[in-house]
Amino acid sequence: MKFWRLPLDAEEQIIPVGRLFIIADRCKGCNFCIEFCPNKVLEASPDFNRKGYHPPVMKPNHECNNCGLCEVICPEFAIYSTVEEKRRFTEVDLVRYEEMSSGEGKGEQE
Amino acid sequence: MAKKGKADRQDKVARRATAENGPRIGVYVCHCGLNIDGSLDCEEVAKYASSLEGVVLAKDSMYTCSDAGQEQIKSDIREHNLNRVVVASCTPRLHEPTFRAACVEAGLNAYLFEMANIREHCSWVHLHDRQGATEKAKDLVKMSVARARLLQPQVETEVPITPRALVVGGGVAGIQAALDLADAGYKVYLVEKEASIGGRMAQIDKTFPTMDCSICILAPKMSEVGRHPNIELMTLSEVESVDGYIGNFHVRVKKKPRYVTDDCTYCGDCIKDCPQHMPNEFDCGLSTRRAIYSPFAQAVPATYLIDMDSCMNKHGIVACDRCYQACQHKCIDFSQQEEILDLDVGTIIVCTGSDVYDPTPLTELGYRRFPNVITSLEFERLINAGGPTGGNLIRPSDKTVPKSVGFLQCIGSRSKRSNPYCSNICCMNTIKDALLIREHWPDTKIYVFYMDIRAFGKGFEDLLMRARREGVVFIRGIPGEILQDDNSYSLKLIGENTLLSKLYEYEVDMVILSVGIEPRKDSAVVKRLLSLPSMADGFFMEAHPKLRPVDTPTGGIFLAGCAEGPKDIKDSVTQASAAASRANILMAKGKVTVEAITARIDPERCTGCGLCARVCPYGAILVDEETKVATVVEAACTGCGACCPECNFGAITMRHFEDHQILAQIDALAESDAGGKILAFCCNWCSYAGADFSGVSRIQYPAEVRIVRTMCSGRVDPKFVEYAFAKGIAAVLVSGCHIGDCHYINANSQTEKRVQRLWRKMARLGLNKERLRLAWISAAEGMRFSQEISALKEIVEKITPEEIEKGIEAFAPKRLPKGEHPDEATRPV
Ligand SMILES: Cc1cc2nc3c(=O)[nH]c(=O)nc-3n(C[C@H](O)[C@H](O)[C@H](O)COP(=O)(O)OP(=O)(O)OC[C@H]3O[C@@H](n4cnc5c(N)ncnc54)[C@H](O)[C@@H]3O)c2cc1C
Ligand code: SF4
Ligand code: SF4
Ligand code: SF4
Ligand code: SF4
Question: Most Cβ neighbours (<10 Å): which of B1, B49, B372, B786?
Answer without folding.
Answer: B49
